[in-house]
Amino acid sequence: MKKLLILTLLIIIVIVSPVMAQEVKQILNVSEFANIIDQTVPVFVDSVPTREDDWYHGRPKYSRFLRFKTLKMAFGDGNPDKKHFRTMMSDLGITNDDHVVLYGARGEIPYHFGAFYLMKYFGHEKVSVLDGGLSEWRETQPITTEEVTVQKTEYKVKVMNRKILADAIDVWSKRWDPHTAIIDARLPEEVSGSLVFDENKRSGRIELSVNVNWYDLFKPNGTFKEESELLQKFEDKGIGKDDNSIVYSQAGYRASGTYFVLTLLGFQNVRNYSASFVDWANQENKKKYAVVGPAYYVGGKTCKKCHRKQYLSWAKTKMAVNFNNLKPGVKADAKKKVGLEPEKDYTNDENCLPCHTTGYGKPGGFVSLKETPGLINVQCEGCHGPGSTYVKLMKEGKTKWEEAGYTDEQLKTTGLIIPEENEQGCMACHGGDSPFNEKVDSKYNWNWPERVQKTHKHFPLKYKIK
Ligand code: HEC
Ligand code: HEC
Ligand code: HEC
Ligand code: HEC
Predict the structure, then answer these.
(1) Ligand number nearest to the C-alpha of 299
(2) Which of 260, 323, 346, 453 is the most exposed place for a label (fewest CB within 10 A)?
(3) Domain count along the chain
(4) How far away, in angstroms, is 297 Cα from ligand 3 center?
(5) What confidence tens digit (pLDDT) does each residue in 88-140 have?
């Protein structure tokens, strides 16, 4: 019995110890790095536009310089290139057992995360990132401009970790999966399509993706925000540790960074669509690899096709005819009471239109009675948000939601507003900015539960997954 125990222990030690020895901390702060620098191979990763300047002004001792061009060849436009990766590692003088510490000029410059991702992909487990990069290091630590002589090595690539890579087909086939989040790491301007890159044939974002801006994950000094705060950023978008996730950005570097953060936070199943948006936006099959631009207003009749019962009951409310109130002579007493001119025509008055039409002043919303007569009154989208992206999705996904259901989070990626969570959205019109607010007359009182019931009749949802 005792022998058996010792034997088991021995086996555990033999099996586990090499694995244990492999494990290094994924992220190091400056002092952690300073303590172990002698046992590591520090690598400064250059960026575009080049930051060689930062490098020449001094860096942590032993550092090697990874040129962006070299990294880009190994990154292979998001299809990791084994041959170039091996050359890159050999030329940097890195052996398969080295503990590599990557950093850039600043923490949020994403290129060193591209190098991190490549190393993980090709099975180099002993790799860490210096939080905050060179700028943070220089605050408290010694720097040097001394060159290191690098001995070329015989680096070997044994593994290709296909599990952590995604391509366009993976994204396309997983985007409707309620358990997979497609995370867009780009700036809101890139996501909305207002910031355009020449190399993208189309602008916008991948259908059903959610935006978690890479730069929002950092403090002003370029170090990461606290873990709880980072986690919250994803949870706010309905993404939890149990979800599978696929990340993308423009060229895959910020996505590699988001990959880094998610694995740091303990997300289990994270894949990098490292070829990213530039790959998606240039796919031949435009219909399949659809790009979503900013949502615009489509009018309530479009909603009626699928929500007939809600539509018919809404059509009986005052909201469905309230544009009329802006006409001369209508509701004269009420107007007089709040100091408006009963005989004045307010149907072109920009002071009234935001609250008495659908989407006035917003992209694709009400413009004027002449140009957009279909968007007078407070229609469905006045409370539920512009519907073009959402309607397209619901039409194309018909077989999906009928079979597998859908989650609120998925619908919300289109900009659909679920008013249940958005009382302040009502207050934009029902609050103090309205001439007809509760201070003027108690009949304009705001009572949320009661008002909700009077927007239209409510019916239980069949396909929604809670
Ligand atoms: C092609 C059909 C279709 C069109 C068009 C459509 N919807 Fe829907 N919508 C659905 C389906 C299906 C559901 C889920 C119903 C269920 O679960 O029973 C839904 C659910 C909703 C929900 C509930 C979301 C939730 O989870 O609480 C809202 C709100 C909604 N739609 C608003 C709109 C608005 C506003 C429009 C017009 C801009 C619109 N819909 C147009 C098919 C459609
Ligand atoms: C775009 C502006 C706008 C928004 C947003 C808005 N409302 Fe209104 N709502 C109006 C206007 C204008 C009227 C007045 C219609 C009238 O009296 O002619 C109104 C009237 C109503 C009425 C009375 C309907 C009736 O027939 O008596 C209810 C109930 C209501 N709103 C609920 C809500 C709720 C709940 C929300 C948020 C989910 C909301 N509203 C958001 C503009 C808005
Ligand atoms: C900030 C939003 C907002 C603006 C701006 C606004 N309204 Fe309204 N209006 C409302 C809401 C909300 C109601 C409904 C109040 C309620 O039912 O509680 C309403 C109701 C009315 C009514 C019906 C009042 C009644 O007692 O039946 C008239 C008439 C009216 N508005 C005219 C105007 C005119 C004219 C203007 C421009 C000078 C204007 N409104 C600007 C939000 C607005
Ligand atoms: C004045 C605001 C307002 C307008 C306008 C409005 N809705 Fe809603 N809608 C709501 C609110 C609030 C809820 C959530 C009810 C809840 O919390 O249970 C809702 C829920 C829904 C749902 C979920 C299922 C249900 O019946 O509750 C659908 C579908 C929907 N709306 C469709 C529409 C359509 C279609 C139109 C246009 C004909 C429309 N809504 C206009 C406020 C609005």
Answers:
(1) 1
(2) 453
(3) 3
(4) 22
(5) 999 999 999 999 999 999 999 999 999 999 999 999 999 999 999 999 999 99
Residue 444 C-alpha to ligand 3 middle, in angstroms? 10
CA 127 from centroid of its chain's CA atoms? 26
Structural domain including 47 reads: 26-151
Give the residue, out of 317, 318, 440, 444, with the most ligand 2 atoms within 8 A of its beta carbon, to mutate for a pocket test. Answer: 318
Q: Is the CB of 365 under 6 A from ligand 2?
A: no
| Residue 442: CATH number of its domain | 1.10.1130.10
Q: Distance between the two ends of the chain, CA-based, in angstroms?
A: 52
| Closest C-alpha to 289, from 169, 400, 165 | 169
Domain end marker among 119, 151, 183: 151
Interval 259-313: pLDDT, tens: 999 999 999 999 999 999 999 999 999 989 989 887 899 999 999 999 999 999 9
Considering only CA atoms, which residue is closest to atom 21 of ligand 4? 458
Pairing of strands 41-45, 180-184: unpaired
Closest C-alpha residue for ligand 4 atom 6: 380
Q: Based on the fold, state whether residues 139 and 174 are members of the same structural domain.
A: no
* 241, 268, 292 - which closes a domain: 292
**pLDDT digit string (tens) for 395-435?**
888 888 888 888 888 888 888 999 988 899 999 999 989 99
Q: How far lies 341's CA from each of 150, 330, 344, 440, 444, in Å?
A: 83, 11, 5, 16, 20
Ligand lying nearest the CA atom of residue 416: 1
315 within some domain: yes
Which ligand is nearest to the Cα of residue 466, counting in written order?
A: 1
Cβ(419) – ligand 2 distance below 6 Å: yes
Assess contact for 390 and 185: CB atoms under 8 A.
no
Q: Residue 141 gets which letter from DSSP?
A: S
Q: Specify if 461 maps to a domain.
A: no
